[in-house]
Amino acid sequence: MRINNYISSSGLCSRRQADEWIEQGKVKINGTLATIGIEVNPDDRVEVNGKLLKPEKKHVYIALNKPPGITCTTEQHIKGNIIDFINHPKRIFPIGRLDKESEGLILLTSDGSIVNEILTDKNQYEKEYIVTVDKAITPSFLEAMSSGVRIYNPVKKEYTVTLPCEISKLNSMIFKIVLTQGLNRQIRRMCDVFGYEVVKLKRTRIMNIELKDLPIGMWRDLTPKEVKSILDTKKER
Description:
Layout: H1 3-8, H2 15-23, E1 27-29, E2 32-33, E3 46-48, E4 51-52, E5 61-66, H3 82-86, E6 93-95, E7 103-109, E8 127-133, H4 139-147, E9 150-153, E10 158-161, E11 166-171, E12 174-179, H5 186-193, E13 198-206, E14 209-210, E15 219-221, H6 224-236
Parallel strand pairs: 7-13
Antiparallel strand pairs: 1-2, 1-3, 3-4, 5-7, 5-15, 6-7, 8-12, 8-13, 9-10, 11-12, 13-14
């Protein structure tokens, strides 16, 4: 197993953070400074910041119905962070993100090896949302949204065109949309291009994992079938 995967499997951090620690000289294998990409054997002694590390043998995978106002971050100095909100006994990480103002399904796990990997844009996994807007939905709006929308990326200071998506009208001001991207505030930015403001945004599905009747603010453990679908996806990478 690669060293960053070994560290993240302990639930200590993500693979990205593990790589940063390795580069900073904070990781040793059998007393020797580790390097990026080095393999670790089961009987090797791995230390992070001078402390012996042992990978978790059993990880947790949970689904939360996130309320509006909760921020999907592991930085616990941020008020209203998702980690303090759940207060899980194990160290967990959100898989992907959901805007602070939005609500609905977000997955979390102690398996750091899959954080920031399962739901990246290039994997194109489906995420389903129910969206309420501030005015009547027109056929032209639905067609334009589904065909790909040119939106501005303030970070990269450039425009990008969203991938085509499935969208259907539920009533005069509510639609369902299925995305295979995870651009920052994507749906809100897409709607804004056509003069629509998002009043409410709720994610109801990620891949085959559905929110269903999970009460807002509550979480549940994923079923064995749901966990298998995540791990099988990881193996395909």
